[in-house]
Design a protein that fits this description.
Layout lengths: L12 E7 L2 E4 L9 H4 L16 E5 L10 H9 L3 E5 L1 H10 L4 E8 L1
Parallel strand pairs: 3-4, 3-5
Antiparallel strand pairs: 1-2, 1-5
Length: 110
Protein backbone atom coordinates (compact mmCIF):
# COMPACT_ATOMS: atom_id res chain seq x y z
CA UNK A 1 0.00 0.00 0.00
CA UNK A 2 1.33 3.45 -0.83
CA UNK A 3 0.11 6.79 0.48
CA UNK A 4 0.28 9.53 -2.11
CA UNK A 5 -0.48 13.17 -1.43
CA UNK A 6 -1.41 15.82 -3.98
CA UNK A 7 -1.99 19.54 -3.77
CA UNK A 8 -4.97 20.82 -1.81
CA UNK A 9 -7.38 23.22 -3.43
CA UNK A 10 -8.68 24.70 -0.17
CA UNK A 11 -6.89 26.36 2.68
CA UNK A 12 -7.95 24.29 5.68
CA UNK A 13 -6.87 21.99 8.46
CA UNK A 14 -7.80 18.36 8.09
CA UNK A 15 -7.23 15.40 10.35
CA UNK A 16 -7.52 11.92 8.92
CA UNK A 17 -7.93 8.59 10.68
CA UNK A 18 -6.59 5.54 8.84
CA UNK A 19 -7.96 2.30 10.24
CA UNK A 20 -6.83 -0.88 8.49
CA UNK A 21 -6.66 0.89 5.13
CA UNK A 22 -9.94 2.80 5.46
CA UNK A 23 -9.53 6.59 5.50
CA UNK A 24 -11.99 8.71 7.47
CA UNK A 25 -11.94 12.21 8.86
CA UNK A 26 -11.07 12.56 12.51
CA UNK A 27 -14.08 13.33 14.70
CA UNK A 28 -12.43 15.65 17.20
CA UNK A 29 -15.59 16.91 18.91
CA UNK A 30 -15.00 14.76 22.04
CA UNK A 31 -11.60 16.45 22.49
CA UNK A 32 -12.69 20.06 21.94
CA UNK A 33 -13.26 20.60 25.66
CA UNK A 34 -9.48 20.28 26.17
CA UNK A 35 -8.59 22.89 23.54
CA UNK A 36 -8.09 25.76 25.98
CA UNK A 37 -5.55 23.70 27.95
CA UNK A 38 -3.44 23.03 24.85
CA UNK A 39 -4.06 25.97 22.50
CA UNK A 40 -5.12 23.42 19.86
CA UNK A 41 -7.64 20.57 20.00
CA UNK A 42 -5.54 17.64 21.27
CA UNK A 43 -5.90 13.98 20.46
CA UNK A 44 -7.64 12.53 23.52
CA UNK A 45 -8.65 9.07 24.64
CA UNK A 46 -12.30 10.08 24.17
CA UNK A 47 -11.97 9.97 20.37
CA UNK A 48 -12.35 6.95 18.11
CA UNK A 49 -8.70 5.96 17.94
CA UNK A 50 -7.88 3.11 15.53
CA UNK A 51 -6.39 0.75 18.15
CA UNK A 52 -6.66 -2.48 16.10
CA UNK A 53 -3.01 -2.51 15.05
CA UNK A 54 0.51 -3.24 16.25
CA UNK A 55 1.71 0.29 15.54
CA UNK A 56 -0.18 3.60 15.62
CA UNK A 57 1.50 6.47 13.80
CA UNK A 58 0.35 9.97 14.68
CA UNK A 59 1.31 12.72 12.26
CA UNK A 60 1.35 15.85 14.38
CA UNK A 61 1.29 18.35 11.49
CA UNK A 62 4.05 20.15 9.62
CA UNK A 63 5.24 21.87 12.79
CA UNK A 64 4.14 19.35 15.42
CA UNK A 65 1.08 21.38 16.42
CA UNK A 66 -1.26 18.44 17.19
CA UNK A 67 -0.96 17.73 20.92
CA UNK A 68 -1.40 14.13 22.06
CA UNK A 69 -2.70 13.75 25.60
CA UNK A 70 -0.80 11.58 28.08
CA UNK A 71 -3.83 9.29 28.40
CA UNK A 72 -3.44 8.28 24.74
CA UNK A 73 0.17 7.36 25.33
CA UNK A 74 -0.72 5.35 28.45
CA UNK A 75 -3.51 3.51 26.63
CA UNK A 76 -1.17 2.58 23.76
CA UNK A 77 1.31 1.21 26.28
CA UNK A 78 -1.44 -0.74 28.08
CA UNK A 79 -2.54 -2.26 24.77
CA UNK A 80 1.08 -3.01 23.83
CA UNK A 81 0.82 -0.85 20.71
CA UNK A 82 3.90 0.93 19.43
CA UNK A 83 2.97 4.64 19.38
CA UNK A 84 4.98 6.81 16.98
CA UNK A 85 4.61 10.59 17.03
CA UNK A 86 6.15 12.40 14.05
CA UNK A 87 5.61 15.48 11.93
CA UNK A 88 3.08 14.45 9.28
CA UNK A 89 5.58 14.38 6.39
CA UNK A 90 7.77 11.92 8.34
CA UNK A 91 4.71 9.89 9.35
CA UNK A 92 3.72 9.53 5.69
CA UNK A 93 7.28 8.42 4.86
CA UNK A 94 6.98 5.76 7.57
CA UNK A 95 3.63 4.60 6.19
CA UNK A 96 5.10 4.42 2.68
CA UNK A 97 8.04 2.38 3.94
CA UNK A 98 6.34 -0.10 6.26
CA UNK A 99 2.54 0.12 6.52
CA UNK A 100 2.03 -3.48 7.71
CA UNK A 101 -0.23 -3.71 10.81
CA UNK A 102 -0.09 0.09 11.14
CA UNK A 103 -2.94 2.55 11.63
CA UNK A 104 -2.54 6.31 11.62
CA UNK A 105 -3.97 9.65 12.60
CA UNK A 106 -2.60 12.43 10.40
CA UNK A 107 -2.93 16.15 10.98
CA UNK A 108 -2.78 17.67 7.49
CA UNK A 109 -2.70 21.39 6.80
CA UNK A 110 -3.28 22.37 3.19
Amino acid sequence: MSWLWGKCSLLSQICLRIDRGVIRTREKKPSKRFRDDFGHTPLSIEEKIPWKCHRLVIGTGAHGSLPVMDEVQREAKRRKIELVLLPTSKAVEMLNGDPEATNAILHVTC
